[in-house]
């Protein structure tokens, strides 16, 4: 949470900072601010959108500055609590992402020493501490302050007396260095930088960096200099733009034929009927696993539930799926379990904590993520990228389907390795997966039908989603998508569970979205639909296009192309995403930036 940017170079810092912050606003949009050294330290901050700050910045020539977009943790959403925070003498400015756990005690001591605080934030403590330690060298002051901090941070600091220099430090919150020609950057996320550079260095926990316009220096907490590798990112600025779509979310839904193809790219050998992963991952999967624990949060957790279904269908390995925030405290410590963490951002604090917990318990860990270089990739034994390009909409869409594809490939690989899956059956699934991009295109062509159904349910106060088997986690995801972007109350249920309680909530005004596939659960879900209809609730069935009977059971039908394979869960997901999108759009909601949410949850 919270977007961070630092710039030092030859351009006007105000322009670069605002530009980059606009690409970071999915990280938090409670307030925003910049500090620029323009002979003196100049600070501008406002509540709400970045455009609100932009309006207040006069013409400035300064070429060193920092910017922040906030997702509030400590202290209300107001101008005082917006970052950057400044020292009493107004010479030092600082931005921060993370949580300083011991800030109350530190603040009391600072106040006793005469420091005047202007906000309720934990962050302000750090800038006063730096002021207290400052003896003419910013990095020295930062290093001695870091020793006093408990908690997590990515922090970026500038000082009026040392223009042309930015100091950054990280512990458990993301911070990358963007390397340019005659200019350098610090950022919480790579998409912020893509307009200016695709060369990055990843800071590790405990590291501190100094950037000037022509030099990057990184050292550890003992001031020992560290040589960092420069990495080239193959994302382009176009990947991080709306490309004519009204919202990032819609663009990202429409990206899916391509992103699914990318998730499969280089991993399937049709000739050998095999799945190929990097050697480190192959070793992890071939390593006498007796169980798999999947840990994740939110939408990634739901892809984990789909993964459980796929792995248990195709292999003999039992799978436990746990919310990372629970697993980290209560997870089963079984050394021979392989722990798979799923995280789009690779920075979700709870998922990282679960990964560390697994490592401490002696488990091998595998990460599925979209972010190369993220913390998750660096603290695990191996990782697989979803290869989806940047996802900017706060609601995860294309990365969810790509995570499922990767989990499907893992299930196939394990099934083949353990001989629970024959070569012909594996081939059937491989062909099924390869057909998915085309089938999703067919779903996207029916966008208007989905819009028509969205119009019918957009005034509902509550919507239920039901499914059985693999469709149960899809129901959970369909409900999450709807509630987070349209603010309509929605619940996902295993269809058989309705009569054990939730039926009490059903009224004639509660639409029920039922996912119906031609598998062992078909007859049962039809019975469940009958039960719902008997209570007068309208039913929207998401069903195979060859299912001609379903129209007699449901009020509306949205169909997906038949492929007789588990992979049809991907086409079904796209229908659910579009349904949520249209309802939110009809209700005029802030689709890409839903209230109270942020893209990357880096606090626990
Ligand atoms: C919902 C959504 C969130 C994330 C969750 C985990 O649309 O995006 O529920 O899935 O915050 O984030 P990652 O996958 O980055 O760990």
Structural account:
This protein has 604 residues and is α/β, with parallel strands linked by helices. It has 18 helices and 27 strands. An eight-stranded antiparallel sheet has the order 3-2-4-1-10-9-11-15. A seven-stranded antiparallel sheet has the order 5-6-7-8-12-13-14. Strand 12 and strand 13 (216-219) form a beta hairpin. It is globular, with a radius of gyration of 25 Å. The model has no long low-confidence stretch (mean pLDDT 94). Fructose -6-phosphate binds next to helix 9 and helix 16.
Write the layout of secondary structure elements.
Elements lengths: L2 E6 L4 H10 L8 E8 L1 E8 L2 H5 L9 E7 L14 E2 L5 E9 L2 H10 L10 H11 L4 H9 L4 E9 L6 E6 L4 E4 L4 E4 L11 E4 L5 E4 L4 E4 L5 E2 L4 E2 L15 H7 L1 H9 L3 E2 L4 E2 L3 H7 L5 E6 L1 H17 L4 E5 H7 L6 E7 L5 H12 L3 E6 L5 H5 L2 E4 L12 H20 L5 H23 L1 H11 L4 E6 L3 H16 L2 E6 L17 E5 L5 H13 L4 E6 L11 E5 L7 H19 L18
Parallel strand pairs: 18-19, 18-20, 20-21, 21-22, 23-24, 23-25, 25-26, 26-27
Antiparallel strand pairs: 1-4, 1-10, 2-3, 2-4, 5-6, 6-7, 7-8, 8-12, 9-10, 9-11, 11-15, 12-13, 13-14, 16-17
Helix pairs in contact: 3-4, 4-5, 7-13, 7-14, 9-13, 9-16, 10-11, 13-14, 14-18, 15-18, 16-18
The structure holds fructose -6-phosphate.
Fructose -6-phosphate (F6R) binds next to helix 9 and helix 16.
């Amino acid at each position: 949470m919270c977007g961070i940017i630092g710039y030092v170079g030859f351009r006007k810092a105000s322009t670069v900072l605002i530009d980059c912050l606009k690409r970071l606003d999915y990280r938090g949009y409670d307030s925003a601010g910049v500090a620029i050294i323009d002979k003196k330290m100049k600070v501008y901050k406002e509540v709400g959108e970045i455009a609100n700050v932009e309006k207040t910045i006069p013409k400035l020539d300064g070429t060193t500055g920092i910017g922040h977009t906030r997702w509030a943790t400590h202290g209300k959403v107001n101008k005082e609590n917006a970052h950057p925070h400044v020292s009493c003498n107004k010479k030092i400015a600082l931005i921060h992402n993370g949580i300083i756990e011991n800030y109350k005690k530190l603040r009391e001591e600072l106040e006793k020493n005469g420091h005047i605080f202007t906000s309720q934030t934990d962050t302000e403590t750090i800038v006063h501490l730096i002021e207290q330690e400052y003896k003419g060298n910013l990095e020295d002051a930062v290093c001695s302050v870091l020793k006093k901090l408990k908690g997590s941070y990515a922090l970026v600091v500038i000082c009026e007396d040392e223009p042309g220099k930015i100091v950054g430090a990280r512990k458990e919150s993301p911070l990358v260095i963007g390397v340019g020609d005659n200019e350098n950057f610090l950022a919480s996320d790579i998409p912020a930088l893509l307009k200016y550079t695709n060369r990055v260095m990843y800071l590790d926990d405990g590291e501190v960096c100094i950037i000037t316009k022509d030099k990057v220096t990184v050292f550890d907490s003992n001031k020992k200099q560290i040589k960092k590798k420069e990495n080239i990112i193959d994302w382009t600025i176009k990947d991080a733009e709306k490309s004519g779509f009204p919202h990032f979310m819609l663009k990202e839904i429409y990206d899916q034929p391509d992103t699914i193809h990318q998730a499969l790219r280089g991993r399937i050998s049709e000739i050998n009927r095999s799945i190929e992963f990097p050697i480190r991952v192959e070793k992890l999967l071939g390593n006498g696993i007796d169980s798999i624990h999947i840990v994740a949060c939110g939408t990634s957790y739901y892809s984990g539930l789909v993964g459980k279904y796929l792995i248990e269908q195709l292999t003999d390995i039992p799978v436990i799926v746990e919310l990372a925030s629970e697993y980290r405290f209560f997870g089963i410590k079984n050394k021979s379990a392989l722990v798979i963490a799923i995280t789009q951002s690779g920075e979700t604090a709870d998922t990282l904590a679960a990964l560390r917990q697994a490592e401490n318990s002696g488990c091998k860990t595998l990460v599925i993520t979209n972010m190369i270089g993220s913390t998750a990739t660096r603290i695990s034994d191996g990782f697989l990228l979803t290869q989806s390009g940047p996802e900017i909409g706060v609601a995860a869409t294309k990365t969810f389907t790509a995570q499922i594809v990767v989990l499907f490939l893992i299930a196939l690989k394990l099934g083949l390795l353990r001989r629970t899956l024959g070569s012909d059956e594996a081939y059937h699934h491989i062909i099924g997966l390869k057909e998915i991009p085309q089938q999703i295109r067919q779903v996207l062509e029916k966008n208007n039908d989905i819009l028509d159904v969205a119009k019918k349910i957009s005034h509902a106060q509550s919507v239920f989603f039901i499914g059985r088997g693999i469709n149960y986690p899809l129901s959970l995801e369909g409900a999450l998508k709807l509630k987070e972007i349209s603010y309509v109350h929605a619940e996902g249920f295993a269809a058989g569970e309705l009569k054990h309680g939730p039926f009490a909530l059903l009224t004639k005004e509660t639409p029920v979205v039922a996912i119906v596939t031609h598998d062992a659960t078909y007859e049962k879900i039809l019975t469940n639909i009958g039960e719902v209809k008997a209570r007068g609730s309208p039913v929207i069935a998401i069903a195979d296009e060859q299912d001609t009977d379903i129209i007699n059971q449901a009020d509306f039908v949205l169909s997906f192309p038949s492929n007789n394979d588990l992979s049809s869960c991907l086409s079904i997901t796209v229908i659910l995403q579009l349904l949520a999108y249209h309802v939110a759009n009809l209700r005029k909601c802030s689709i890409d930036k839903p209230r109270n949410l942020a893209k990357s949850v880096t606090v626990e």
